[in-house]
Design a protein that fits this description.
It contains 13 helices and no strands. With 277 residues, the protein is mainly α. Among the domains are: 94 residues, Orthogonal Bundle (Helix Hairpins); 49 residues, no CATH class. Helix 8 packs antiparallel against helix 9 and helix 9 packs across helix 11. The longest helix is centred in the C-terminal third of the chain and has 25 residues. The chain is globular.
Length: 277
């Protein structure tokens, strides 16, 4: 028998059920499906990650609530069709955690995080082997399932790591850089030919190769891009402020001068802050 949810959790379940009530519910919520909610799940997950990066507990609490709402909404939609409910979701993940932590819930031993990872991977491989029994392309099938819900950059890194581990790998870093230049040239050619569909494919190939560069260097492409986004916005906000919020009609030369000034000012502030610590 499932444990009764806390009062707070039960309240959220009831709120979502009321939003989805066919007679008195919200028209927008009633229109939603699993598919229509996908962008919101991804958006909320990214906002949780952003709150974690900024170390803001109030923001993190709010964003985790938004993400939890998405889980409860999906459970409500499935429950209305008698497919599964929130209890089934919770029981499923509980069973998985118990199964994959025999050193906590069973007699196995694990004295370090490395031991835990090895045990987790072994159990997961066995589960996947059972699920993919008889498949002619088990690794591809496994990866297709694994990355289907991931952002593209994260999915590319997962595919890259698994393929390399299976032996589909360059001999050295020089080979990776050669591939980067090859893909960049092909992108330039596709753009020059005005073939948008081909250019998009080549852009994807270049980005995938750059993910491999990140893997070889042991750096995170998602974290790198998130940092660049934030740095761009920090500098761009200063350019806007210097122009009173109006960029219309400004020359690229004027904007570039202000951009360099903003970049130098931020660097000076960071040096001053680090020097005073």
């Amino acid at each position: 028998m499932a444990n009764a949810p806390s009062d707070a959790m039960q309240r959220l379940i009831e709120v979502v059920a009321q939003l989805r009530d066919p007679t008195t519910g919200c028209p927008w919520d009633l229109e939603q499906t699993h598919a229509s909610l996908v962008p919101y799940v991804l958006e909320e997950a990214h906002e949780v990650a952003d709150a974690i990066r900024h170390g803001d507990d109030n923001h993190l609490k709010e964003e985790l609530g938004d993400l939890l709402l998405q889980v409860v909404l999906h459970a409500q939609i499935a429950g209305e069709e008698q497919r599964f409910d929130l209890d089934a979701i919770a029981n499923g993940i509980s069973e998985k955690m118990i199964r994959r932590h025999p050193h906590v819930f069973g007699d196995a031993e694990a004295s370090s995080s490395d031991d835990v990872r090895r045990s987790w991977d072994a159990i997961k491989r066995q589960e996947q082997a059972e699920a993919l029994a008889g498949a002619t392309s088990p690794l591809s099938d496994q990866l297709r399932t694994k990355v289907r819900g991931l952002p593209a950059l994260a999915g590319a890194m997962t595919i890259s790591k698994k393929a390399a581990k299976a032996g589909f790998e360059w001999d050295d870093m020089d080979g990776v850089w050669e591939k980067v230049h090859e893909e960049l040239d092909e992108l330039k050619e596709a753009v020059a030919n005005g073939n948008r569909g081909h250019a998009q494919e080549e852009l994807g190939d270049l980005l995938f190769t750059l993910v491999n560069v990140a893997r070889w260097c042991g750096i995170g492409p998602e974290e790198g891009l998130a940092g660049t986004n934030q740095r761009f916005l920090d500098r761009f906000s200063r350019v806007e402020a210097a122009l009173g919020g109006d960029l219309q009609g400004r020359s690229i030369h004027e904007l570039e001068v202000l951009w360099k000034q903003a970049k130098a000012a931020i660097r000076a502030e960071q040096s001053s802050t680090s020097g005073s610590n």
